[in-house]
Structures are given as structure tokens and as C-alpha cells.
From TrEMBL:
Keyword Coiled coil attached: yes
Alphabetically ordered keywords of this record: Coiled coil
Segments passing through the bilayer: none
Family matches, as InterPro entries: CC-FHA_domain
Protein name per UniProt: CCD27 protein
Entry coiled-coil feature ranges: 4-131
Keyword Coiled coil: yes
Length: 196
């Protein structure tokens, strides 16, 4: 947003310069037209003089006026050329700033779109995390009940001693494996004796 504001300010400055230069160009063109009117007035003045006076004064005044006018025209043409060049440069700068402004706005729009997508992904991940936590708590609860049942089944067997401290999962598994092995041995022994 700051970049867009900066580009817009630069465009306004360049456009202001362009308007000022065009105004100066119009002023120079107006001055040139005024000089042409003056020249026409001098020409009209000579028409009212006698032929001899007209010729003498015409030669002197026309030569002087021509020199002055040529200097003015040359100067004004030079100024106009410089201003046309500056106008062209300013128009190029304005076009470049407008292109940068469009690019910056497009980039900002893409960033906003990406931010929306990321926000949507974050919300989806948070929802998934919540579901996972609930599932984990449910599994943990089931596992704890299953573990307690294993402990009860393992240590409720005749001849077994109650655990003296909190059992680890490995100790529970070892005790359960021991019972399984003993039962398998008992089954084998019964099969050998022919008992069902």
C-alpha cells in the first residue's frame, strides 16, 4: 500500500510538471503569434507612408525587425524543442510509473489471495489438530482401560504377587507374555495326556 501511494505521488508530480511545461509551451506559442501581429502592424504602418519614406524606413526597420524576430523565433523554437523533449520524457516516466503501479497492485492482490489461502489452511490444520487431540484422548483412554485389564488379568492369577510400584508397559507385556507361555505349556501338557 505504501509503494502504491508513493507511485501515485510520483505520477501526480510528473503530471504536474507536464501540465506546467505544456502551459509554458502555449505561452511561447502565444508570444510568437504576438510577434507576428507586431510584424503585421509594422507592415501596415509602412503602407501609409510615402513611397520613398516607405522604402527607406522599410529597409531599416524590416532588417532590424527581421533580426529581432529571427532571434526570438530561434530562441522559442529551441525552447519548444527542449520542452517537447521534456514532455516526451515525462510521458515515458508516467507510463513507467503507471506500469509499476499496476504491477504493485497485482502483487498486492496476489499476496492477499495467498494470505487468504494460508489462513484457510491454518484453520483447516487447527480443525484437524482438534480432531486429532480428541481422537488421541479417546485412544489414550481406551489404551489405559486395556492396560488396566491386562494388569488385572496378569496379576489376578493364582500365585502371582501384586506389583509393588507403578508398572511400565514393558513389565506389563513381559508378565502377559509369561502367562501366555505358561498357558501354552499347560495346553501342550494336556494334549499329551489326551485331555480335551
Amino acid at each position: 500500500t505504501g509503494a502504491i501511494s508513493s507511485l501515485q505521488r510520483q505520477m501526480e508530480i510528473q503530471e504536474s510538471k507536464l501540465r506546467r511545461i505544456r502551459s509554458e509551451k502555449e505561452l511561447l506559442q502565444k508570444q510568437l503569434r504576438e510577434r507576428e501581429v507586431q510584424l503585421q502592424a509594422v507592415s501596415d504602418k509602412f503602407c501609409s507612408l510615402t513611397e520613398e519614406q516607405r522604402q527607406k524606413e522599410a529597409v531599416v526597420m524590416m532588417e532590424e525587425e527581421n533580426r529581432n524576430l529571427k532571434q526570438v523565433v530561434t530562441k522559442q523554437e529551441s525552447q519548444l524543442a527542449e520542452q517537447n523533449k521534456l514532455i516526451s520524457e515525462l510521458q515515458g516516466t508516467i507510463s513507467q510509473l503507471q506500469a509499476e503501479l499496476v504491477t504493485t497492485r497485482l502483487h498486492l492482490l496476489r499476496q492477499k489471495q495467498a494470505q487468504k489461502e494460508i489462513q484457510s489452511q491454518v484453520e483447516e490444520l487447527q480443525h484437524t489438530e482438534l480432531q486429532t487431540r480428541v481422537a488421541l484422548e479417546l485412544i489414550s483412554s481406551k489404551f489405559e482401560r486395556f492396560r488396566n485389564k491386562i494388569i488385572q488379568a496378569t496379576f489376578c492369577v493364582e500365585g502371582s504377587q501384586d506389583p509393588q510400584a507403578e508398572l511400565t508397559d514393558n513389565e506389563v507385556l513381559e508378565a502377559m507374555q509369561k502367562i501366555i507361555n505358561e498357558r501354552q505349556e499347560f495346553q501342550q501338557m494336556l494334549k499329551k495326556k489326551g485331555s480335551k
